[in-house]
């Protein structure tokens, strides 16, 4: 460890903050920005049971931009701010308030600021202004500040330099130490801010900035410290709670993760060594006092950690969470000693840490991956992150005053909007409500060949064994409005479609869910007109949409990928949609208008309840051809059969809206036959994307 003092003139430090192009050092970037962009999603904990979490895309709040990298947040009382890189690699923020509308700002647009290489980290300065801390493409650490109107103070300190609406302060130019492309960290205490970052040579750089009055532009204090990795010993003990212990470091492994600055008036920085030890550096007094090093892993007997650190704090406690190599969450905790007369603001206790293995304490918690967030509210401690093996957003919570932890799959309980998330999760607390943010990964329904109409007791088995698609019939046609009903269940909670959703929900696996509903057409004596067919389709769509909308209140937060009208209802097992045998082209054309009207009504009915539901239709090859279904905007799932030497393609029964083939007459045995049937549907001439096999009643078999 070495500490260096830089006695720079204040004028020089301020000039660099005004014009980043005057920086005296330039360093190559260590990594490239990701090329793909994803929508930013919000997961709000509303507290309303049974599914308190709700998800929504923020794209409309973000001027239509998407995100590269991940989001990062900061909270200031009843206000919060998110920072991210847009799909054009601009720096942007979304400011949130308990009382006002969200405010989106593109900091890069028209301001000629250094382009980012790493994600921006937002923070609030002592006066409540939002600022951004990030590493640019030259390997320099930048603080970006929204300037106030030109004042005499600006002219005095900047010697008349042109006023700028956004000011970039190049901290690497001031310290002379290049940054890696990892995230930097900052903590504000009083009128000062402590900043730390991982350098390009794998050390930790720590510096202090001072704010004067309400001026948002910080002043560099001309003192920085370069901290080298200490010797450290590897520990392998896994514990749930510990008391402080002593241990002497024995080997130097270098740093494996960027630092975090712990809150308090005394400069304190934590990081992870290459061997998995958590180390904390604390300055023993005012600069340039020596730094004291603690190996918290050795003190607590914790397992080695293998991930970025996440910080949560209150006025009396500090929590630092990280992942072990197997994805378990380790939570290190300490407290602020009471304030003294000589130090009226409490600082972190550096000699008293405990650790808990939260994954072991939270029943059902999966291994996590990526960057965690720790959020401490008046009622709970919450740790959130991405599930390591399937990407769902999980939150582990502990109610204040209790020792138990609960694991919740937020992606599932928050609805179908975003089932999986990116690797970076952040959180905010605005007006006492916990809200999580992450990239909503485009999780398309899995394609391939699945199963239809298997015994309900085998649904979970089918999902577990790897069938990518699973489907069932939710309701059958009736002889009165709404022309579809639950004929085999006394309540929604016992209905086939709900129970299938529950099986998928409980499996924690992303499978394609095809939901079929048999609907009746106009009965004998009723008018055969497009209007009447539309009304039948609309009434049934409203009813089915209403059933699906009730699933959430019953504990199932996902919805089917497609809600498919099956025209096999009354009065003739074809919903009165098929023309008589030998019908003329004119008659076929007239019946085509019935199909179009009923399906338009079906989609409109579903949309009137939940526009996010995707309508579809089930039809035979001859129906697809005869009634011009290729011209409809709905996806079509075509019925075929393996019996009688089939399936056999029918001329004119293909089109771009055919999404898959729903086959009956399939065989489970021998295994070669099952494999051949699956390959038939997935390959030419069929090449279906979402296909199913239906076996004899009561039969199930594992995927080939």
How would you sum up this structure in a few lines?
The protein has about 700 residues and is of the alpha+beta class.
Can you give a write-up of this model?
- The chain is an alpha+beta fold.
- It is elongated and about 95 Å long.
Topology:
Elements: E1 2-5, H1 10-18, E2 40-45, E3 53-57, E4 67-76, E5 79-86, E6 91-97, E7 103-106, E8 121-124, E9 130-135, E10 141-146, H2 152-158, E11 166-170, H3 171-175, E12 185-189, E13 192-198, E14 204-210, E15 219-227, E16 231-232, E17 251-252, E18 260-261, E19 268-272, E20 278-283, E21 291-295, H4 296-300, E22 310-313, E23 317-323, E24 329-335, E25 354-357, H5 358-361, E26 362-363, E27 368-376, E28 380-387, E29 393-399, E30 405-409, H6 410-413, E31 420-430, E32 433-441, E33 448-452, H7 459-465, E34 469-475, H8 496-507, E35 512-518, H9 530-549, E36 562-566, H10 585-609, E37 615-620, H11 621-626, E38 636-641, E39 658-664, H12 671-682, E40 690-693
Parallel strand pairs: 26-30, 33-34, 33-40, 34-35, 35-36, 36-37, 37-38, 38-39, 39-40
Antiparallel strand pairs: 1-15, 2-3, 2-32, 4-5, 5-6, 6-7, 8-9, 9-10, 10-11, 12-13, 13-14, 14-15, 16-17, 18-19, 19-20, 20-21, 22-23, 23-24, 24-25, 27-28, 28-29, 29-30, 31-32
Helix pairs in contact: 7-8, 9-10
């Amino acid at each position: 460890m070495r500490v260096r003092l830089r006695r720079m003139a204040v004028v020089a430090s301020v000039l660099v903050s005004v014009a980043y192009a005057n920086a005296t050092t330039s360093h190559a970037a260590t990594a490239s920005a990701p090329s793909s962009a994803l929508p930013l999603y919000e997961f709000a904990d509303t507290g309303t049971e049974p599914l308190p979490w709700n998800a929504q895309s923020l794209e409309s709040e973000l001027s239509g931009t998407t995100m590269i990298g991940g989001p990062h947040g900061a909270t200031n009382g009843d206000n919060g701010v998110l920072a991210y890189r847009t799909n054009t690699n601009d720096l942007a923020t979304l400011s949130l308030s308990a009382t006002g509308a969200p405010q989106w700002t593109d900091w890069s647009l028209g301001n000629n600021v250094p382009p980012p290489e790493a994600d921006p980290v937002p923070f609030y300065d002592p006066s409540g202004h939002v600022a951004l801390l990030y590493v640019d493409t030259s390997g320099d650490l930048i603080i970006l500040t929204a300037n106030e109107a030109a004042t005499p103070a600006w002219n005095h300190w900047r010697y008349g330099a042109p006023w700028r609406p956004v000011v970039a302060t190049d901290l690497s130019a001031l310290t002379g130490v290049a940054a890696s492309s990892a995230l930097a960290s900052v903590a504000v205490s009083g009128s000062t801010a402590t900043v730390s970052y991982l350098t390009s040579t794998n050390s930790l750089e720590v510096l202090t900035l001072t704010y004067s009055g309400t001026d948002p532009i910080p002043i560099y204090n001309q003192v920085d410290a370069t901290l080298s990795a200490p010797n450290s010993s590897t520990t392998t003990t896994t514990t749930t709670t510990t008391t402080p212990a002593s241990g002497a470091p024995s080997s130097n492994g270098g740093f494996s993760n960027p630092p975090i600055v712990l809150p308090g008036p005394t400069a304190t920085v934590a990081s992870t060594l290459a061997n998995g030890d958590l180390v904390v550096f604390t300055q023993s007094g005012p600069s340039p006092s020596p730094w004291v090093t603690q190996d918290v892993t050795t003190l607590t007997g914790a397992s080695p950690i293998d991930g970025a650190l996440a910080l949560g704090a209150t006025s009396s406690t500090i929590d630092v969470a990280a992942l072990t190599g197997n994805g378990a969450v380790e939570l290190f905790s300490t407290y602020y000693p009471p304030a003294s007369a000589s130090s009226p603001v409490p600082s972190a206790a550096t000699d008293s840490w405990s650790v808990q293995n939260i994954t072991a304490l939270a029943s059902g918690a999966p291994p996590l991956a990526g960057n965690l967030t720790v959020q401490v509210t008046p009622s709970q401690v919450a740790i959130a992150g991405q599930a390591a093996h399937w990407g769902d957003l999980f939150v582990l919570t502990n109610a204040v005053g209790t020792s138990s932890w609960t694991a919740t799959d937020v992606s599932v309980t928050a609805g179908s909007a975003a089932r999986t998330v990116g690797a970076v999760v952040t959180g905010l607390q605005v007006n006492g409500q916990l809200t999580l943010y992450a990239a909503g990964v485009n999780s398309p329904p899995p394609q391939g060949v699945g199963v239809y109409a298997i015994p309900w007791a085998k649904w979970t088995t089918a999902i577990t064994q790897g069938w990518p698609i699973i489907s069932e019939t939710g309701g059958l046609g009736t002889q009165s409005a709404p022309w579809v009903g639950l004929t085999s269940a006394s309540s929604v909670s016992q209905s086939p479609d709900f129970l299938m959703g529950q099986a998928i929900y409980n499996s924690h696996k992303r499978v394609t869910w095809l939901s079929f509903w048999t609907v009746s057409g106009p009965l004998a004596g009723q008018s055969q007109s497009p209007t009447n067919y539309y009304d039948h389709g609309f009434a049934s769509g409203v009813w089915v949409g209403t059933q699906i909308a009730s699933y959430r209140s019953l504990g199932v937060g996902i919805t089917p990928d497609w809600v498919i009208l099956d025209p096999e209802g009354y009065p003739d097992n074809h919903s009165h949609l098929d023309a008589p045998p030998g019908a003329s082209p004119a008659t076929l054309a007239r019946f085509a208008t019935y199909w179009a009207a009923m399906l338009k009504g079906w989609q409109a009915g579903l949309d009137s309840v939940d526009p996010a539901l995707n309508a579809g239709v089930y039809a035979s090859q001859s129906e697809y051809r005869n009634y011009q279904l290729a011209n409809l905007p709905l996806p079509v799932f075509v019925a075929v059969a393996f019996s009688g030497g089939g399936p056999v393609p029918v001329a004119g029964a293909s089109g771009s809206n055919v999404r898959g083939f729903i086959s009956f007459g399939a065989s489970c045995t021998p295994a070669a036959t099952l494999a051949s049937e699956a390959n038939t549907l997935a390959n030419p001439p069929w090449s279906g994307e979402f296909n199913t096999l239906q076996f004899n009643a009561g039969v199930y078999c594992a995927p080939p």
